[in-house]
Amino acid sequence: MYRIAIVDDDRITRLELDKFIARFADDFQHEIQTALFTDGDELLERSAGSYDIIFLDIEMQRLNGLETARQIRLRDDQAVIVFITSFVQYAVQGYSVNAMNFLVKPVTYQTFSAELNRALVRIQRLRPTTLCLRTDEGMVPIEADQITYIETVGRKVSIHTREHAYPCWDTLTNLEKELPEIQFFRCHKAYLVNLAFLERILEKNALNAGTEVLVSRDRRKDLMRALVRFASERA
Prior knowledge:
five-stranded parallel β-sheet, 15 strands, five-stranded antiparallel β-sheet, elongated, alpha/beta
């Protein structure tokens, strides 16, 4: 789940960006919760510090975007800030508040979706995931980057690394929600793979860290798209 704020005093822009996010979430199967604000002070009063990504207009009637971003940084140094502006000359000032980028109005879906994708990648890099596995021997912590793939085995799941397999009491669906969406892909009802270890995609299976895993026919193309997107972001 990602939480995104849109802060703009123009109603048409707010609604358009909201539609872009809904379309992006549908296109790439992300779970995203969006909140809309009419001004920077409204964001700061209600919920600053609780969003992963903030799309922030610079020119607003009450509290402008640059000052809003400065106050956000006093509370949150990890939120990804992307400025939305009609004035290119403000772009340089954005770096003083560690903004990731700026988008010039009018914003197209293609431009917006590319920027949103970059923002999600940055979030996942800044916040590495550690799973706490409930095994028969107790709780075992494991870094997401170490996982090669996860498979369903009976009523348990088996989490594989290059060295070990950890049977644990959980479901593939629950683990899928906890892992970085851009890095892990559900290629079969019984398999979740780490794209960083994917070596080859065949007709009915894939080679992942030297092990063959099943790939559903209706998920093969989506797996290939996910791999291309993941590889392009790591380049």
